[in-house]
Amino acid sequence: MSVKTVFSTIFFTLLTGATPVLPRGPTHHGDGEFSRIFERLSALTAFQTATYYYPDGAIGACGARSSSSDLVVALNPDAFNGGHNCWRRVGINYNGKYVEATTVDLCPGCGDLALDLSPATFKHLAPLAKGRIQVNWHFL
Question: Is this structure's pTM higher than 0.90?
Answer without folding.
Answer: no
